[in-house]
Amino acid sequence: MVFEEMNQNNILFKRDRDTILFDDVNLRNIETKFGTPTYLFSADQIRRNIRYLREKMLEYNPQTSIAYSMKNNIIPEICSIIADEVNYFETTSILEQKIIEKIILEKKKNIHIVSTNIYKPDELIEDVIKYPIISSSENDLENCHSFLAIDSYQDLKNIEKVAKRLGVKPKVLIRVNPGIKMDIEETIFASANVTAKCAVVISNIEPIIKASNDPTIKIWLPERQFKPEFDTAERLVKEAYESESLDLVGLHCHLGSQITNIEYFDRFFEVVTRFFKTMNEEINDKLKILDLGGGYPVDYAHCECVPTIEDISKSLSKNIKNSGINPDIIIESGRFITANSGILLSKITITKENSDGRKIAVLDLSIYSDLLDVLTAQWSYDYSLINDLPDTDQKATWKLVGGTNDTLDQITPRMIKCSNCKEQIIEKKEITFLRDLVIGDLIAVKSAGAYTTCFNSNYCGRIKPLIVIKDSMSEQQILRTR
Q1: Is residue 64 part of a domain?
Q2: Which of the listed residues 333, 366, 381 is the one where a domain comes to its end?
Q3: pLDDT tens digits, residue range 417-444?
Q4: Contact 220, 209 (CB under 8 A)
Q5: How far is the C-alpha of 14 from the C-alpha of 21, rounded, in Å?
């Protein structure tokens, strides 16, 4: 299954004589027509990713719905493409809500939302509560469901306050932090440990340990050194259940983003499914929905140890069965759906060499405004020369840097160790190309469709890159947006 998913990632790239095509698009034509830097997305690949994700999840978990996590890419045209494939969206802001409401008007389709932000201003809470009413009145459709994921005790009280004022009883989920032990060096984006800022931690771990068939569960569930007075998962579940203003329907959990260790998924699923079972026994089986958030990884570094969607789906199925529960499952995917559907096309503006003999190529992009994860998360992408490719396999190593004066504005792959095999995946600061680079060469940053465009800024007075979407199902083959 590893190779099948790797093919999913590489299907878009093909060589045509001395040029690399992306989704059958000649990137030199993109540069001529739109300039650089430019993001190019494949709508067909987005659809393939969603269908693959759904197929593998439903194969082992038939009661699963796919939700799109909007924060990773909120380009309205891309959200519209995704809305043809999924019925759920995870939102965190009023802007995201309005994008979905507009899509509903255009498509006349039921779309359900899960609002998850750590802080929800009254305006956002009100918009989410009114969402089913607005949607049905505008489209003559059945109500589109909306869910508020309660993140803290104060969040619960704020939602209660707005609900009382509106006289509407919103459906709510309690956002639960399982508080499992995680190696933060391996999981940069982990958010399921006891120190995480989001969700409320499971305070009493003894029922979970007792119910587990695996004695090593104690290693993964450290003793709680401090038990909050208000912000515990147990308390919020009971308070929401007893509230006259809230309709408790389930739990929301989130492991993190780009989790590459299958053990983390396995322990995460075990803890939250057993907690679901324990709490349901105390509140008369009120919990019907288990939203498991995201974390589903993309194989950026081409390491066969990255777990596949099938691996993850099997783990979930096993833990649901072992826990003896039968919830409706929601998984929220952002990165897996959009990452490999997009590239960032950039041009070399000038070349240099420094005193230690390294050759430097300056691109017309900036890490700060176009690829922020390289800086904030020491993230690494694949880079490919796409024009004037030689017939023979030559080797030339270059250091790529961004086009601003800032010292940190450079594409420097970090030292990555596979969390399973512990081997180093990237060992050098330079990137190897098939020949020496020259001014005017085009470089494609691969798998740049997630957590890139949402960080675009006008840092140093730079103009934000254009966004081009190639869609074989559109009468207009290429759409433009900024």
Answers
A1: no
A2: 333
A3: 555 565 555 545 678 999 999 999 999 9
A4: no
A5: 5
